[in-house]
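Q: Here's a chain of 76 amino acids. Please give me its 3D structure as C-alpha coordinates.
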Amino acid sequence: MTKFATFALAVGLSASTAMAGGYVAPVVDVEPVVVDTQPAGTFNAGLVVPALLLLGVIAAVASDDDDEDEGTDETD
Protein backbone atom coordinates (compact mmCIF):
# COMPACT_ATOMS: atom_id res chain seq x y z
CA MET A 1 0.00 0.00 0.00
CA THR A 2 2.87 2.38 0.65
CA LYS A 3 4.13 1.88 -2.89
CA PHE A 4 0.72 2.84 -4.26
CA ALA A 5 0.53 5.92 -2.00
CA THR A 6 4.03 6.98 -3.04
CA PHE A 7 3.15 6.52 -6.71
CA ALA A 8 -0.11 8.47 -6.31
CA LEU A 9 1.71 11.27 -4.48
CA ALA A 10 4.36 11.48 -7.22
CA VAL A 11 1.72 11.56 -9.99
CA GLY A 12 -0.30 14.13 -8.10
CA LEU A 13 2.66 16.46 -7.58
CA SER A 14 3.84 16.17 -11.17
CA ALA A 15 0.35 16.82 -12.52
CA SER A 16 -0.04 20.00 -10.52
CA THR A 17 3.28 21.41 -11.74
CA ALA A 18 2.41 20.59 -15.34
CA MET A 19 -0.76 22.69 -15.11
CA ALA A 20 0.91 25.70 -13.49
CA GLY A 21 0.31 28.96 -15.30
CA GLY A 22 -2.67 27.89 -17.33
CA TYR A 23 -3.35 28.84 -20.96
CA VAL A 24 -1.85 32.03 -22.34
CA ALA A 25 -3.25 33.26 -25.66
CA PRO A 26 -0.60 34.15 -28.25
CA VAL A 27 -0.10 37.87 -28.85
CA VAL A 28 -0.32 38.92 -32.48
CA ASP A 29 1.04 42.32 -33.42
CA VAL A 30 -1.11 43.96 -36.10
CA GLU A 31 0.51 46.53 -38.36
CA PRO A 32 -1.63 49.63 -38.88
CA VAL A 33 -2.85 50.15 -42.43
CA VAL A 34 -1.56 53.37 -43.98
CA VAL A 35 -3.80 54.84 -46.66
CA ASP A 36 -2.29 57.42 -48.97
CA THR A 37 -4.86 60.18 -49.15
CA GLN A 38 -3.90 62.55 -51.91
CA PRO A 39 -6.43 65.20 -52.81
CA ALA A 40 -8.02 64.47 -56.14
CA GLY A 41 -6.95 66.98 -58.75
CA THR A 42 -9.28 68.69 -61.17
CA PHE A 43 -7.16 67.47 -64.10
CA ASN A 44 -8.45 64.14 -65.36
CA ALA A 45 -5.72 62.23 -67.21
CA GLY A 46 -8.32 60.12 -69.01
CA LEU A 47 -9.41 63.11 -71.05
CA VAL A 48 -5.96 64.03 -72.39
CA VAL A 49 -5.88 61.62 -75.34
CA PRO A 50 -9.40 62.43 -76.65
CA ALA A 51 -8.73 66.16 -76.27
CA LEU A 52 -5.49 65.88 -78.24
CA LEU A 53 -7.23 63.86 -80.95
CA LEU A 54 -9.98 66.46 -81.17
CA LEU A 55 -7.40 69.26 -81.47
CA GLY A 56 -5.63 67.28 -84.20
CA VAL A 57 -8.86 66.90 -86.19
CA ILE A 58 -9.66 70.60 -85.80
CA ALA A 59 -6.14 71.52 -86.94
CA ALA A 60 -6.40 69.19 -89.95
CA VAL A 61 -9.75 70.67 -90.99
CA ALA A 62 -8.53 74.23 -90.51
CA SER A 63 -5.37 73.69 -92.55
CA ASP A 64 -7.14 71.85 -95.37
CA ASP A 65 -6.43 74.01 -98.44
CA ASP A 66 -8.53 73.39 -101.49
CA ASP A 67 -6.09 74.78 -104.09
CA GLU A 68 -7.99 73.23 -107.02
CA ASP A 69 -10.73 75.89 -107.10
CA GLU A 70 -8.68 78.90 -106.04
CA GLY A 71 -7.32 81.22 -108.72
CA THR A 72 -8.92 79.48 -111.67
CA ASP A 73 -12.01 80.84 -113.29
CA GLU A 74 -13.46 78.35 -115.78
CA THR A 75 -16.54 80.39 -116.68
CA ASP A 76 -14.82 82.26 -119.56
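Q: Can you summarize the key feature?
A: Residues 67 and 73 are 13 Å apart (CA to CA).
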